[in-house]
Amino acid sequence: MTRHSSSIPAPSTTTPYDEDRAAYSLQALARLALCARAVDLAAAAQALVGTRHDVDTGLGGRVSEGARAVEVAEGVLARSVVYERERGASWEDIGRYLGIDAGAAEERYAPELERWNTAFRVPYRLDPTGRKRIPQLPQAAYDPRSAVRQLDLWAGLHVTTGDWHAVSGGLGGPAGGPAVSSELGGSVRSENLRTFLELLSGYVHYDFDDTDWDTIALGIEGTDADDPAAWYAYPLHGFLDAAQVRLAYSRPYPEDDDGEPDTVSVRVTGAHSRDLRLRIDTLIAALGHPPQFP
To answer: What are the b/e assignments for 115-133, b being 16+ CB within 10 Å?
Structure first.
């Protein structure tokens, strides 16, 4: 029986990324999860390429790295099966490429498909403190907006040089709409916001000062990342480059001791060069919440 990709079932718990997830089909989310695992495999295989430090590696060390690459490759295969099922492939189609019959293919990978489906109903669990969400979905499917940004950047640097939509371009955009824009975005901790803005301003050669900070601090009061109309926009026009940053407090996150949300969502437009996009992406990752994986 062929499975056809459908909309995402309503989760039993809410997350900050429900709206982003709902904008994509299950097929697109499965493809993002596969893309992310393929990047993991590339990193695992890359460790085996260089020979300079072989003399410093203990006996058997390269076997451990080879075993790690095989382990990640098995994950790539499992996620490719989930993607193909969401795409509409039958177990016969999948078994043909695995060299096994349909029944054997289903028996081997049906549990993976069941875990995938279950995770949409219960997308996360809380850590022992009760404050942090631990995704049960693959991270790329849990937070697709960030995944698209990071995967587009990675592919633009390593696969199709200069094509900043190598991943998002084939997804057809959220809900089949236009392709994802060149906007870069993510979340940074509130305590790191000024550092983020100062470094971003330095990248575009804009002289950021106390007046800029005071204006932004006042402007983001009352913002809410869940309300697109409530975001605050601020231009950073340097003498070589220009960018615009949009900001809003991420209300679903826990609050700091001062009662303010401890996370600010940021979106940056105007970054078109490879180096600038890489710097901004790294900056967001360094000053935000560390990713949490199942």
So the answer is: ebeebbeebbeeeeeeeeb
* Contacts for 109 with CB less than 8 Å, ≥ 6 apart: 78, 81, 82, 94
Please provide the DSSP assignment of 159-224 as one string. Answer: TSTT-TTTTHHHHTSGGG-SPP-S-EEEEEEGGGHHHHHHHHHHHTT----HHHHHHHHHHTTT--
Amino acid letter for position 262? D
**8 Å CB contact between 272 and 172:** no
Q: What is the pLDDT of residues 192-206, one digit of tens each?
A: 999 999 999 999 899
Share above pLDDT 70 across residues of the chain, in percent, rounded to a whole number: 85
Total residue length of the chain: 294
Which among 147, 204, 154 has a CA at the least distance from the CA of 180?
A: 147
Residue 208: is its pLDDT beyond 90? yes
Helix (H, G, I), strand (E, B) or coil at 28: helix
3-state secondary structure of 255: strand
How high is the pLDDT of residue 193?
A: 94
Q: How far is CA 168 from CA 80, 185, 280, in A?
A: 17, 14, 18
Please, where are the H alpha helices in the chain? 18-22, 26-46, 61-87, 91-98, 102-121, 139-142, 144-158, 168-171, 193-203, 210-219, 274-287
Query: Averaged over 156-179, what is the pLDDT?
Result: 69
What is the structure's pLDDT at 1? 42
CA distance 9 to 26: 10
Around Cβ 84, how many Cβ atoms within 10 Å? 21
